[in-house]
Amino acid sequence: MATKSNRGAALRSLDKHSDGERDRPPYSERLRVPIRWWVQWSVMVASFWLAMIVVVPERLAWIVTAVLTATMATLLSSYGSPRIVVTARWPYAGQARIERRHLGRITALDASEMRSWAGPKASACAYLLLRPYISTGVRIDINDPQDPTPYWLVSSRRASALAAVLGSDGGRVQQHP
Question: Tens-digit pLDDT profile for the chain (177 aa)?
């Protein structure tokens, strides 16, 4: 059954499998925001500073700019923090995880299929880990009668590699054109 767990505990458990051995996961990806977002937000903060330095005392302009910069860094870092990790027993996507034995068909999706599954074909019960700056992803069918989630839809910059790793233990992998 897919579970949402404490993120810190989940990430600490990524390195340790049930048999106690420490292994490097066969797949790991962080969904970081692109550099252009950092540049655009930095230009926005600089614009605020420029507008404020003219009308408020210099000290106040710098304080507000420092607060805006810290807010920007926090927001962009947290939005780009989800990880996709596949271990021998569990795939993790953000804060969700499910045992690999419950995985069904795994499909690497191109940009148009990803848009379709995130939009008109979407199920309200699906688990979605989507980022607008990543156009490709993977659809993972869930075969767990106790779990109401029909599938996971996960953004990934390396969708084919993720699908291959998830399907390496017998899952049915499909590639979409």
Answer: 554 444 344 444 444 434 344 567 889 999 999 999 999 999 999 999 999 999 999 999 999 999 999 999 999 999 999 999 999 889 999 999 999 999 999 999 999 999 999 999 999 999 999 999 999 999 999 999 899 999 999 999 999 999 999 987 655 555 555
User: Which residue type is seen at 11?
Assistant: L
Residue ranges of the alpha helices (H) in 4-158? 7-13, 35-55, 58-79, 111-118
Three-state DSSP at 21 gives: coil
Say how far apart CA 149 and CA 77 lie, in whole Å: 28
